[in-house]
Amino acid sequence: MNPDEIRKLNAYFTKVFGTPGLTVKARPKKDDSCEVYKGDEFLGVLYRDEDEGELSYSFSMAILDIDLD
What we know:
Blueprint: H1 3-17, E1 22-26, E2 33-38, E3 41-51, E4 54-60
């Protein structure tokens, strides 16, 4: 993803979740996805999907059972 896309996605995540500590960062050697962090904690991967001229993004986040306590 290019820096402009990452900037827009970062602003979107901050607005939607109301958490200024969320950060979208580029992934080394990957141009179809980026990573989402809260501070230094990795939250998940944000994938870019372009199909038949339509662009969308999909956020994937794994939650461990030990994190629910």
